[in-house]
UniProtKB/TrEMBL annotation:
Gene3D superfamilies: Lipoprotein like domain. The keyword Cytoplasm does not apply. This is LPS-assembly lipoprotein LptE. Pfam families: LptE. One of its GO terms (molecular function) is lipopolysaccharide binding. It comes from Paraphotobacterium marinum. PROSITE patterns: PROKAR_LIPOPROTEIN (PS51257).
Length: 168
């Protein structure tokens, strides 16, 4: 009887430790799990725009060394990025009451001796439109949402890069 109780308690403890709901893995978006991505070359049309700086910062925070382009290391080329605001709902007076915000980053990952692989990181969000009584609220909302969506798109991009397999 005593061994059954001990086994039961031990199995509960082991199940609790092993399950952990994956909470300890949250926020782990590093790309260092792939040994071929310890060094990366980052190429973009405008190295000083917000997306390029955000990608560079995310790579550096994950311990990836950004080096000059050569044939021996993987390359990330940011092809384009866009922020689109659209109308997704109108009221009876045909005024926009719900807006769609979409941030897209198109990029290529090029491994040595392989063809370029094209990827997109797309993040969308719906939001209620501010009232017409405060027109500046819409501008502030757009700026804030653009920044948040860009950060989320870069985070998604890093996660996508983490899953890419290098085949030599």
């Amino acid at each position: 009887m005593e061994s059954k109780v001990v086994k039961f308690i031990l199995s509960i403890v082991i199940a609790s430790v092993l399950s952990g709901c994956g909470y300890h893995l949250r926020g782990s978006k590093g790309i260092n799990t792939n040994a071929s991505l310890q060094q990366i070359s980052l190429t973009t049309l405008n190295p000083y725009d917000d997306v390029s700086r955000e990608v560079k910062q995310a790579l550096l925070l994950n311990g990836t060394k950004i080096v000059d382009a050569n044939d021996e290391i993987p390359q990330i080329k940011i092809i384009s990025s866009s922020f689109v605001v659209g109308s997704s709902g109108k009221n009876q007076a045909y005024q926009t009451v719900q807006s769609l915000y979409k941030f897209t980053i198109n990029y290529q990952v090029i491994f040595p001796n392989q063809l370029p692989q094209n990827y997109s990181s797309i993040v969308t969000e719906y939001s209620l439109t501010p009232t017409a009584s405060n027109p500046n609220a819409g501008t502030a909302l757009n700026t804030q949402l653009k920044q948040e969506l860009m950060e989320e798109a870069v985070s998604k991009m890093i996660s996508q890069i983490n899953r890419i397999q290098f085949i030599s």
